[in-house]
Amino acid sequence: MTLAGAVCTLRPVSTSRHDAVDQAPRATRVPVPAVLGISVICAGAAYPVTGAALGLTSPAVISVCRALVGGLVMLPVLRMVGARLPSTWVGWGWALVIGFGNVTVTLAGIAEGTRLAGAAVASVLLNSAPFFAAVLARVFLGEGLTRLRVIGLITGFAGILVIVASQPSSGGSHVVEGAVVCLLGALGWAGAGLGMRYLSVRDADFDVWGASTAQFFCGGVLLLPYLAATGGFGGTDWSSAKLWASLVFLVLGAQIVTYVGFYLALAQWSSARVFSWTFLVPVVAVVIEALQGNLPGAVATAGLAIVISGVAMVTHPRAEAKPV
């Protein structure tokens, strides 16, 4: 079957809590809350680490290194976990499509959206991915949305707005263009997650590790024109130990741990339930600043509480009740 044929025959699948767990790949079953918790911590830490690296290199270099070096690091990991790269054209076709969304569009969206619109606008719009995921999952995968889950998603996003509003303004010079780029990045991340959810539930033998590695390579190659258009590796201070330390974390933590952990979770939990955890990424970033001595104010603290309560609603067992 060709990739086009696979897409054309994509039909809603049964994704109730029990069905999804039963159909999840046995070899990759994981304690989802723990895996998502670690993934969210790595994703949240990526923002200050990226900020430190940007004084020594460009956004494009960081994005390309995360993707391609992440893929290379994953190769020996595949042997350790008994996984492998896709062996069919269809498998590589899916990797190309999903890698374009979760690597090329998402990483470029984060980098360029922040540059154009500023960190505040970018952090809000990039966190709209759970809404895209919830709607697309309902349309294409038949995943229901309960009233509690919808309220939880709205509450979590409201908390993000409160946190951002409490921070000093950092608007960019091209807010409209940056907003569009950020929304495309959020849509790319949501669409890619939806594709991984579909493949994981459809095939009990689906190899999340191998597919993720292939996506790193495909998405990274598609980022090369972006790298060339922004000056290549020129201006990068390769002699800086700070840069190397930042890149090591961004590859191992922000790329490998976050992506693979997220997709292992999607093999067992519904899309909206997993994506809601991305609301916790700014919370982690604020906590890291607090540990560095920059304690959040009362408004930011209230925002943290709102975000956490929203995620709790989405992941609560009652949110798995009959959709309304």
How many helices? The count is 14
Assembly state (oligomeric): single chain
- Tell me the fraction of residues in β-strands, as a range: under 5%
* Secondary structure tally: strands: 0
Regions with little confidence, pLDDT below 50 for 5+ residues: 1-27
Overview of this protein structure:
The chain is mainly alpha-helical and 324 residues long. The chain has one domain (29-320). 73% of the residues lie in helices and 0% in strands. The protein is built from 14 helices and no strands. Helix 3 crosses helix 13 and helix 6 (119-126) packs antiparallel against helix 8. The longest helix is centred in the N-terminal third of the chain and has 29 residues, at 89-117.
Summarize it.
Helices cover 73% and strands 0% of the residues.
Produce the secondary structure layout:
Layout lengths: L2 H6 L8 H7 L8 H22 L5 H23 L7 H29 L1 H8 L2 H12 L6 H19 L9 H28 L5 H22 L11 H26 L4 H5 L4 H12 L6 H18 L9
Key phrases:
single chain, 324 residues, mainly alpha, globular
